[in-house]
C-alpha cells in the first residue's frame, strides 16, 4: 500500500485569508494526481486532474501546482469564504491503482 | 446530468442478511468504481468495472460481490458481512477506465452501512 500524505490534517482560517495545503506522494510511477473537495453529507467533487510535472491549474479562487519529481502538489485558496469549508482530498494514481490521502479539513470562520 | 446516484443512503443489516447497494449514472461513462471509507481513513478502492467487465478487484473478500448489469448501473451485493465492514461505500464513474487514471471521477454521495 502506497503512502499519500496530506498536511495539515485540519485548518481553521478567517474569512478573506488565503491558505494552502500539501499532498505528498511517491515520485516514481506517476500517472496522475486528482484533487477533490468533499463537503459533509455531499458527494466528493472533482477539482483538478493533474498529469504533467510543473502543471498549474486554476478554478476561480482555487489553484493547484504539481511537482512529480519531488512528489508533491499544493492546493491554494485565495480569499477563503465560508462556503470553502470542506475536506480537500488528493488521490495519487499509478497504473490503474488509486490511492487517496486522508484529507485536509478546512474551516473558514466568518 | 453530472449526477451519480446511490441507494439506499443508509443501511443497517445483520450478519446473516443479504442486501444490495445500487449506483446509477447517465453520463455515458464506461468506467464505474466502488470505494470503501472507514471513519478518518482515506477511501479505498474495491472494484473497477470498465466497459461492463470487472477490471480491478483489490483483493476484496467474497462476501462483497459486484455486478454491472449495464453501463449505467453498478450493484454491490452483500452477504454474511462482519461488523468491521461498517463503513461509507462510495460509487464513482468516469469516461473511460483504461486511460491510466487521467479521467475525472464523479462520485455519488455514498451509502452509510452499519453491520450489527
Main interface: chain pair and counts:
A-B, 25 and 24 residues
Number of strands of chain B: 11
Number of helices of chain A: 0
* Net shape of chain B: globular
Largest sheet of chain B, described in full? 7 strands, mixed
Taking all residues together, what is the mean pLDDT of chain B? 91
Distance between the termini of chain A: 39 Å
Supply the number of helical segments of chain B: 0
Biggest sheet record of chain A: 6 strands, mixed
Using the CA coordinates, give the radius of gyration of chain A: 13 Å
Low-confidence stretches of chain A: none
The fraction of residues in strands of chain B falls at: over 45%
The mean pLDDT of chain A is 94
Question: What would you say this structure looks like, in words?
Answer:
- The complex is a heterodimer of chains A (110) and B (116).
- Helices cover 0% and strands 56% of the residues of chain A.
- Chain A contains no helices and eleven strands.
- The mean pLDDT of chain A is 94.
- Chain B is an all-beta fold and 116 residues long.
- Helices cover 0% and strands 55% of the residues of chain B.
- In chain B, the strands form two sheets. In chain B, strands 2, 4, 5, 6, 9, 10 and 11 form a seven-stranded mixed beta sheet that branches. Chain B has a four-stranded antiparallel beta sheet with strand order 1-3-8-7, with no helix packed on it.
- Chain B is globular and about 40 Å long.
- The mean pLDDT of chain B is 91.
- Classes of the chains: A mainly beta (110), B mainly beta (116).
- Chain A binds chain B through residues 4, 31-32, 34, 36, 41-46, 49, 51, 89, 93-103, and chain B through 4, 33, 40-45, 48, 55-56, 90, 97, 100-110.
What topology does this entry show?
The complex is a heterodimer of chains A (110) and B (116).
Chain A: E1 5-7, E2 10-14, E3 19-24, E4 32-38, E5 45-50, E6 56-59, E7 62-67, E8 72-77, E9 86-94, E10 97-100, E11 104-109
Chain B: E1 4-7, E2 10-13, E3 18-25, E4 31-37, E5 44-50, E6 53-57, E7 64-70, E8 73-79, E9 87-94, E10 106-107, E11 111-115
Parallel strand pairs in B: 2-11
Antiparallel strand pairs in B: 1-3, 3-8, 4-5, 4-9, 5-6, 7-8, 9-10, 9-11
